[in-house]
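From the shared-data thread, chain only:
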Amino acid sequence: MIRKLGLSVVFTALLMIAVECSRTPAASQVVVEIPSGFSGDFLLEMGIKDAPALAKEGETFTVTVPKSGKVSTSTLLLNPKVTFKNGSDGGVWGYSHAVFTTGDGIPVGGKIEFFVGSRQDYDAAEQKKHHSGSMLRSVAPSHAPA
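Structure, as tokens:
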């Protein structure tokens, strides 16, 4: 009788753990503040060991875009719900979010990227990125004279 009770307690505990592990984590709320006059690429590097954490008020994280367009943080946002407060004249284009994991699926870093500006500026910046490698050429190694 005691053995059956013990097995049912263990089974119930394992079932509860399995249910908890299978839940999708709630999406983090993130507000990205784009200042007036900002134009260009933005990069948020996440999970950086000695970088400061993102500012958080209640359940909402806040990121203010600096002039450099780059922010590094120790905070790692796995599934963010992003809202833009755009004080700039341009639109937000090419938003992407990536999470980097170890071989066994543990999140270790990530990034959020986007462009602020006109559609033409965004298209031109993308063209530049895609053609930047086209100028590389193969050079045969030189041999020293004998």
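The two ends are 91 Å apart (CA to CA).
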